């Protein structure tokens, strides 16, 4: 198996389907002759990628703007692996309609890769760039408007031959219009403990019950989230994360007592094929039964929610939101759909 760290996911998938003798590249090349922005491996080819280490697949996927780290400690800790599972192990019988990306490359980089690595690849930096950072030259852009012509051109480029139908003028684009793609998001904490959806209600209740005590702390009284709790009554996950971090610093005894009294810490394992490949620590409400946890908040975001198994009828929309109101505080978060292999019986 051959790979290189800065290769795009589209290139990686294309090359290994070709190496395995496959002829159907529709999961990575659209019928318009462009890259598919969010590839989905059809089931007939999934065994090819089962041979790769899951951490390697995750790194390559992240380089192409997919499978980002969780947004906050109130997000689903398995979200990046759920995204990975959709790509490499999902029920991908049909091609998912996504935004397309022009196929761009640097001829000099292709030549260098053939000499240094013995094979060529398309760099992840070329997905949204107009210039090659290594050689400071404009990237060549495939002009093919049909899938067949683009596939033939990609095969030629990977062997070092020049594609005939190219230009150097790239269409204007904005990364933001490619829904579901996320770049340069790194994990903010080395070993975060994630708060599961069942913890949000008791946390909001505790904050409102203790708001005067917290307000008396001079370090906290001017925090923006303090005004949100007192005035706007509107809280987002990153606000709640900020609150927990600052309370842990400014009111450690008070906050830690609340956490210890109300929540239990649990370690979970998860992966695409190996449910112990990755792991995270989580907080959940004490006494909550995994099999009977039907919190209205977080269906599709808690990795242990039983509802996670029954989401086929729901829209997989990265802009979907759910709202919770507790003690007159409005809390909203992005819904995350999907599943991966999960092991909830790991020891801390």
Provide the domain count: 2
Q: β content, as a range?
A: 15-25%
Number of helices: 11
Q: Give the topology string: H per helix, E per strand.
A: HEHHHEEHEEEHEEHHHEHHEEEEE
Within the largest sheet, what's the order of strands?
A: 8-11-10-14
Shape: elongated
In total, how many beta strands?
14
Low-pLDDT parts are: 307-316
Q: Could you tell me the radius of gyration in angstroms?
A: 23 Å
- The separation of the N and C termini measures 35 Å
- Overall mean confidence score, pLDDT: 83
Q: From the helix content, strand content and strand pairing, which structural class follows? A: alpha+beta
Defining key terms:
alpha+beta, 2 domains, three-stranded antiparallel β-sheet, 11 helices, 31% helix, elongated
Describe this structure in words.
With 348 residues, the chain is of the alpha+beta class. It has two domains: 9-177, no CATH class; 193-346, no CATH class. Helices cover 31% and strands 16% of the residues. The protein has eleven helices and 14 strands. A four-stranded mixed β-sheet has the order 8-11-10-14. Strand 4 (131-132) and strand 5 (137-138) form a beta hairpin. Helix 10 (237-250) packs across helix 11.
In a few lines, what is going on in this structure?
By secondary structure, the protein is of the alpha+beta class. It has helices at residues 9-19, 46-50, 54-63, 79-88, 107-117, 147-158, 200-209, 211-215, 224-232, 237-250, 252-262, and strands at 35-36, 100-101, 104-105, 131-132, 137-138, 140-142, 166-167, 193-195, 234-235, 263-271, 278-285, 321-326, 329-334, 341-346.
């Amino acid at each position: 198996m051959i790979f290189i760290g800065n290769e795009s996911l589209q290139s990686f998938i294309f090359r290994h389907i070709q190496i395995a003798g496959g002829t159907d590249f529709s999961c990575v090349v659209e019928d318009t002759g462009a890259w598919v922005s969010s590839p989905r491996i059809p089931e007939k080819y999934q065994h090819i990628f089962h041979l790769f280490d899951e951490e390697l697949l995750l790194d390559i996927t992240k380089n192409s703007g997919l499978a980002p780290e969780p947004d906050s400690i109130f997000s689903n800790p398995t979200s990046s692996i759920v995204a990975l599972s959709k790509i490499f192990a999902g029920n991908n019988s049909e091609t998912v309609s996504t935004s397309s990306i022009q196929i761009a490359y640097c001829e000099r980089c292709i030549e260098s890769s053939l000499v240094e690595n013995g094979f060529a690849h398309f760099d992840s930096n070329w997905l949204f760039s107009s210039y090659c950072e290594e050689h400071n030259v404009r990237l060549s852009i495939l002009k093919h408007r049909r899938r067949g012509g683009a596939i033939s051109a990609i095969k030629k480029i990977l062997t070092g031959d020049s594609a005939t139908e190219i230009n150097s003028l790239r269409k204007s684009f904005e990364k933001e219009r490619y829904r579901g793609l996320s770049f340069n998001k790194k994990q903010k904490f080395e070993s975060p403990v994630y708060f599961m959806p069942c913890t949000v209600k008791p946390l909001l209740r505790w904050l409102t019950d203790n708001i005067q005590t917290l307000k008396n702390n001079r370090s906290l009284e001017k925090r923006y989230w303090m005004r949100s709790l007192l005035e706007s009554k509107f809280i987002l996950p990153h606000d709640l994360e900020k609150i927990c971090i600052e309370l842990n610093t400014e009111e450690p005894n008070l906050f830690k007592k609340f956490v210890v009294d109300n929540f239990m810490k649990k370690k979970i394992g998860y992966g695409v094929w190996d449910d112990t490949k990755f792991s995270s620590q989580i907080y959940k409400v004490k006494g909550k039964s995994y099999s009977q946890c039907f919190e209205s908040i977080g269906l599709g975001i808690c990795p242990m929610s039983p509802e996670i198994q029954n989401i086929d009828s729901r829209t997989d929309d990265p802009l979907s939101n759910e709202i919770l109101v507790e003690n007159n505080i409005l809390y909203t978060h992005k819904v995350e759909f999907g599943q991966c292999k999960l092991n909830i019986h790991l020891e801390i």
